Amino acid sequence: SRCSGDSVPGTDGCSIRKRVFIEYTMDVFFRQTWTDERLKFGGPTEILSLNNLMVSKIWTPDTFFRNGKKSIAHNMTTPNKLFRIMQNGTILYTMRLTINADCPMRLVNFPMDGHACPLKFGSYAYPKSEIIYTWKKGPLYSVEVPEESSSLLQYDLIGQTVSSETIKSNTGEYVIMTVYFHLQR
Coiled coil: which residue ranges (predicted)? Predict the structure, then answer.
């Protein structure tokens, strides 16, 4: 390369591009639904609510946050999880989480910059042929942010958008779901 370690940025045609990331933390109620034909039932009860001990015996998706640095499932005073089975085998699984994730910063228009902080999630082990993630309420209504949560210390949350993509790896194709939180200073 013509740029050596002795080069001064901006001279000799060499430049340095530095990527800046911030970490952001959010509390979420993460809801997942799926259908398990094996759990269909009949009777007078329309919905079965299960306790955490029973939930541990039922298959659940292995969802993880791809750009998460640390995630905490809340357990005060009991695990903050809700697990319900409908008669047709549809399951609702909700948990309260605190997620710390990376956000790439674009400081081009600093101090009037805006950012799209992603939260990416998907299956850890199951390829697309075994598990598919979709936005249940479509792209406009699948992520809800309360009005009181839309202002941050230096930024305002001006909206959010969602997307999904399929990535290929040597173990298969995987669906990745992404929520972009749009911030403006």
Answer: none
Q: How far is CA 170 from CA 63, 125, 167, 176, in A?
A: 19, 12, 10, 16
**Which residues make Cβ contacts (< 8 Å) with residue 71, sequence separation at least 6?**
65, 97, 98, 99, 100
Q: Identify residue 175 by its one-letter amino acid code.
A: V
Domain boundaries 20-184, CATH class: mainly beta
How far are the Cα atoms of 5, 9, 19, 36, 177 from residue 14, in angstroms, in the given order? 10, 6, 16, 57, 37
Collapsed DSSP state (helix, strand, coil) of residue 178: strand
| CA–CA dist 178, 75 (Å, integer) | 26
Element (H, E) at 126: none
Q: How far apart are CA 40 and CA 42, in angstroms?
A: 7
Model confidence, pTM: 0.78
Indicate the domain borders of the chain: 20-184
pLDDT tens for 37-91 read: 999 999 999 999 998 888 889 999 999 999 998 888 998 888 899 999 999 999 9
Q: What phi and psi values does residue 148 have, to the nearest 5 degrees?
A: -70, -10
DSSP secondary structure code for residue 142 in this structure: S
